[in-house]
TrEMBL record:
Species this chain originates from: Zhihengliuella salsuginis
Protein name listed in UniProt: LacI family transcriptional regulator
Pfam families: LacI, Peripla_BP_3
Domain of life, source organism: Bacteria
SUPFAM superfamilies: lambda repressor-like DNA-binding domains (SSF47413), Periplasmic binding protein-like I (SSF53822)
Signal peptide: none
Amino acid sequence: MADVAKRAGVSSQTVSRVSNGYPGVLPETRHAVHLAMDELGYRPNSAARALKLGSFRTIGVITFSLAPLGNLRTIEAISTSAAEAGYAVTLIPVGLPTHGGVENAFTRLEELAVDAVIVIMEVHLLDRAKVTLPRGVPTVVVVDSDAGDAYTVVDTDQADGAQRATRHLLDLGHRTVWHLAGPEDSFAAERRVQAWRHTLEEAGREVPGLLRGDWSGESGYAAGQELARREECTAVFCANDQMALGLYRALREAGREVPGDVSVVGFDDTADSPSYSPPLTTIHQDFAEVGRRCVSRVLDHLRTGEHPPGTSLVPARLVVRESTAAPRG
């Protein structure tokens, strides 16, 4: 730091203020200090700075799986938002939702020294593992809006999205809407099931039997083979776009056209959904906004020292493309 100060013609205190991002330094002085840092190859010692400031400038992220699209997009947004605020992200995947797996993840985070934790998993899995969150560490939970009485929660408004999908198909003139749901142990899947059923009941329509998949295209294909045999099925709401793709294949093989014979709505609005044949009508989830709000809540907690519970729901929206139409006849 003394070498940088000498090269830039300033005091060591000014170098410290520039390296720590403090205001009150003239732009030309800040530029001279950065230029001297580059010329000398100087890098601030983050460990020493953490000891001095009592902050590690790091947010820990725990997730069960990197496979789901939503998790990947949310983590990407968390990383981007954290970097813009001057924070690094430490990612710890948990292989299995067991007591040992979750406990080890939190133990590792405590050893790595983080300022806050974002948990991308459903709270019932946390409760099942009987894990106590690190004391004094601000924590935000993603993807479980029922947990707002105990945690700070950020989630997509799953119910509103499912209601919009079901209502869209009813408004087109379909007598009822079949639903290809996600796994029973998924909070998001169950929230969508409840909203689908409630929307049909509120409209005075018959509620067909529920079919389930595991989010994969293969499971959508298997359920689609059964739906294709049901002539009374003219509209299907799929709990995600990937299962809708499998449904497309099953309907096509059975000689049933989309949307001529069966209208299909997905959920997620993946990057590929506009390229489906036909382009898929779906519910858009703003994963980037979920990630931004997570970081915003964490930084609020760090600034205020308060960790109030509560839920922040990110709105979903219907994206109408070419996979839905009025029923024939």
